[in-house]
Amino acid sequence: SPDKAWINDTILNIYLEKGHKGRILGDVAHFKGEAEMLFPPNTKLKIESIVNCGSQDFASQLSKLRLSDDATADTNRIKRIINMRVLNS
Fold it and tell me: Are 34 and 23 a contacting pair, CB within 8 Å?
């Protein structure tokens, strides 16, 4: 629910290549303040890494991410960062 505080424990960090077909939802996004994107049907994503809380790279990667205000308030809830890439067709 958009009325509740941010409760997710996973961050999807999606790398976009030049020419990708995704569109930022902006004001029509369900959760305001998040960088929600819509991709065309059959868009393929490749998972490049999964970084779990407690791993050597977790704190470093988390500190580099731009998070919404709700997420920044309680980063202890975040358990993993999934780094992925949109594959252009």
Answer: no
Residue 86, beta-bridge partner list: 45
**To the nearest 5 percent, what fractions of the chain are helix, strand and coil?**
20, 30, 50
CA distance 10 to 7: 9
Q: Give dist(CA 83, CA 18) in Å, integer.
A: 17
Span 6-33, pLDDT tens digits: 557 888 888 888 888 888 777 776 666 6
pLDDT value for 3 = 46
Please give the Cα distance from 31 to 4 (Å, whole number): 10
pTM of the model: 0.73
When the candidates are 1.20.1250.20, 3.40.50.150, 3.90.176.10, 3.30.499.10, the CATH number that belongs to 10-87 is 3.90.176.10
